[in-house]
UniProtKB/TrEMBL annotation:
Keywords: ATP-binding, Nucleotide-binding, Transport. It comes from Nocardioides szechwanensis. Belongs to the ABC transporter superfamily. Residues 64-304 form the ABC transporter domain. InterPro entries: AAA+_ATPase (IPR003593), ABC_transp_ATP-bind (IPR050319), ABC_transporter-like_ATP-bd (IPR003439), ABC_transporter-like_CS (IPR017871), Oligopep_ABC_C (IPR013563), P-loop_NTPase (IPR027417). One of its GO terms (biological process) is transmembrane transport. CDD domains: ABC_NikE_OppD_transporters. GO terms for molecular function: ATP binding; ATP hydrolysis activity. This is Peptide/nickel transport system ATP-binding protein/oligopeptide transport system ATP-binding protein. The keyword Metal-binding does not apply.
Amino acid sequence: MSERDTTADELVPEQQAEIEPAPALTPEVPKFEELAQQAHTAAALDLSRGTVLEVDNLKMYFPVKSGGLIRRKVGDVQAVDGVSFEVPRGGSLGLVGESGCGKSTTGRLITRLYTPTGGRILFEDRDMAKLSKRELKPLRREIQMIFQDPYTSLNPRHTVGAIIGAPLEVHKVVPKKQILPRVQELLEVVGLNPEHYNRYPNEFSGGQRQRIGIARALTLNPKLLVADEPVSALDVSIQAQVINLLQDIQKEFDVAFLFIAHDLAVVRHFCPEVAVMYLGKIVEIGDRDSIYAHAHHPYTQALLSAVPDIKQAAIGGRRERIRLEGDVPSPINPPSGCRFRTRCPIAQDICARHEPPLLQIGKRHKVACHFPGPIGAHPDAPITARLLGTDEVGNPDPGATPSPQITNKPGFDDTWFDLDAKTFGRA
Ligand SMILES: Nc1ncnc2c1ncn2[C@@H]1O[C@H](COP(=O)(O)OP(=O)(O)OP(=O)(O)O)[C@@H](O)[C@H]1O
Ligand code: SF4
Ligand SMILES: [Mg+2]
């Protein structure tokens, strides 16, 4: 049964307290940010403490096999294909994009639920991509995951105490008699009654169950939480409560987040930096202002234009929605060159011939487009041609040499490509 199906009368008293302000019970649905900002301002970017995670050219190809008795590999689902980014220590990076673009696969690679096809996952300077199961065990404590669905991610046959205490038992980090006090402490941290440790998940509302999931993720004091759509299954007022809780926890536990979500308003509030994915690749990444107020990639612009409560200044003051034509192509056989070209309203010949590099165009802003610019002001000629050593349609230019400054490394440099001067400059 979903949270919306539950009537207030069916709930125990503390559940009623949580669900009462839910929009389902009021005619006007409040906006997420209005609710969240009553208690918490949007998170700020702090780069003074370095990075906790560096993801470098990460790839995950799932093999596609033929039917029949002898199952041969006939292709790959290129779910994640050369993704690079950093997460600041104690900070949060948002990962957004349409369904199937590879967000969850990226999260599962970082927690090493999958072994990557290629690339590096540097966590505290150790490459997790290459570690064996035994070598991974101590690091697994440091990176935990919060899942989308609080209904299915908790074992209904275990008490809340057993669920939250299980990691302590598995990793043998505290003596047995200290497990219950630690569980109760965590229940209190996430806003639940510590005396309810021997209740079962079905005795809690959706928002409360997600709090249990958060407590479980915190049990081992992780340095990084991968939160995969942590509030998508919740009503908007409960979303705001859970997001505010995550902000409190971030401060109290000094934990960093990779925050995966499709809701751009939630991500804007929680994440000072955002990466936008399309078909297995990052197409734009930057700080909140660069992405929400100065998006330069046609895909980011289309995503933002579809969200009514994102300020329209975000996309150059344009009020109309940019409708993307066609479906997302298959990641088994992605388009040549730029993967977005089959749906891009401004695609030209070079887009089919060359993949646009993820080029740094501002202090903390990178974009993968041959024609990056604000809506209605995309350049007529590809800014990347000279850097790639081609002419304007993408044919090799014998007089030009590819620029060594085109890289796919994580993080940002002190120099970047100035779109007005059309050259690299120093900050
Ligand atoms: N285990 C798997 N085997 C084969 N293909 C997979 C597997 N897991 C994911 N995929 C494919 O990889 C691509 C990326 O999937 P992923 O779940 O990472 O997307 P997502 O961005 O999280 O989508 P959503 O927003 O719907 O959760 C999809 O095409 C999906 O079908
Ligand atoms: S590279 Fe070309 S197809 Fe891709 S987003 Fe830019 S203009 Fe569109
Ligand atoms: Mg997903």
